[in-house]
Write a structure and sequence with these properties.
Radius of gyration: 16 Å
Strand order of the largest sheet: 2-1-3
Structural class: mainly alpha
Oligomer: single chain
Distance between the termini: 27 Å
Number of helices: 4
Helix content: 25-40%
Order of helices and strands: HHHHEEE
Strand content: 5-15%
Number of strands: 3
Length: 131
């Protein structure tokens, strides 16, 4: 898969974060094929560019009345977590990122987390970075 645009990465973040609710809603509409195609594009190495299936999913969700669509509030364009004002004296923080490098989702580690969270699309553990 080629490097997705910031817009697509943001949309994939939204879809991944809301995957179960989207799947349930699309199941009610009889349109899970659109979500399956998107997940396949993201998870299959060298597969389809996820932009077209994400746009198709966005159209379906918007046509059903969800103004956020499949992009949600993904106007943000996060590529890697950055901590503004981090000094050498500050303890490093751990963030979890997409294991496929497909989306812009960032989950900050908390002491209660226990184990790394998993990707909603692939099921793989999120990769972590330390800042």
């Amino acid at each position: 898969m080629q490097e997705p645009s910031a817009r697509v990465r943001g949309g994939l973040s939204y879809v991944c974060e809301h995957l179960d609710a989207l799947r349930e809603h699309l199941d009610e509409l009889g349109r899970t094929d659109a979500l399956d195609r998107l997940v396949g594009a993201v998870v299959d190495d060298g597969g389809e560019d996820p932009a077209a299936p994400l746009d198709a999913l966005d159209r379906i969700v918007r046509e059903d009345g969800d103004a956020r669509g499949a992009y949600g509030t993904a106007a943000r364009t996060v590529s890697e977590p950055r901590i503004v004002g981090l000094s050498a004296a500050t303890e490093a923080e751990v963030a979890f990122l997409c294991p496929l490098g497909a989306c812009a989702r960032v989950l900050w580690a908390t002491p209660a987390m226990g184990s790394p969270p998993s990707c909603g699309m692939s099921g793989a553990p999120l990769r972590w970075v330390k800042h």
